[in-house]
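Entry 14. Structure prediction run on the chain below.
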Amino acid sequence: MVDNKYDPPLYVFTSNDYMRCLPIWVYCFNKFWGDKKVTILGYDVPNYDFPDNIEYVSLGEQVGGPKNWSTPIRDYLMNIDFDHIQWCTEDSFLFGFNEEIYYYLTNKIKNDPKIGRVALTNDPEHSSRVVNPPKKVEYGFTTVMGMNDWELIKLKKEGSFRSSGTWSIFSRSLFFELMRPNISPWEFEGETGKKGEPHNITKHYDIPDWDIIATKGKYALRTCCGIRTSRGEQINQPLHLIPINEFPNSLRPADDEQLIKELRTKGFIDSDNRLSNDIFSKSGPFEFEETK
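Output returned:
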């Protein structure tokens, strides 16, 4: 049991096209976490009710396309009082929550002003590499401390994906340093790579003054990226419901299949794992209580 439970506020960012993922996001979140208040920032107002722990805030009319993604979010959050902010996108479906690791990491960022970001998923271990390394592959992190069955890691200053749109906690200062006006979600990450060459990265800015921490081996959150496409071009295609950096027939546990069955039973997805017609029409009501 964790004694000091520092719990930064959680915001979910969505848009009119992607808000159709919200019923699945809410169901998965409440199934695996559930007792935490969440604020969703979107535009069009859904015509269904959310559970009591979920608040939906409309930012008004959506204008400007992806290039204007950051501006309404920044304008709204500049008026909110927080020291650290936790955020993710609406297609980051939660598949598991490790309370011990989560609160270990939140207390780290609370007590160390040098830490600008805590990555809560397994992305740093699997994706961070040194940019333009002298050898073919060089991991973009070092181990800070070994635990029983996981490690605390810190991303190298020259490592990739020090900023990321994956589920993370940011200090207020670094969040607004990165969430500049009139940028897209991909510009927030500040990096691009050639297709088929995941470690050939171009960095568009540096954040060397901040420590970025994560874990290796076990993680605070187990998530999937439901719309696993470039720039959301295939939202009508089957959702990618395999947790990120896990693969069928190896690390993928059977409970994922059970969760997918639950999502079908609820009418959130069809037999091909596509978003259901009800969600495409943004209609409801949806049944958010967990299927037993």
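The mean pLDDT is 84.
Filed with the rest of this week's runs.
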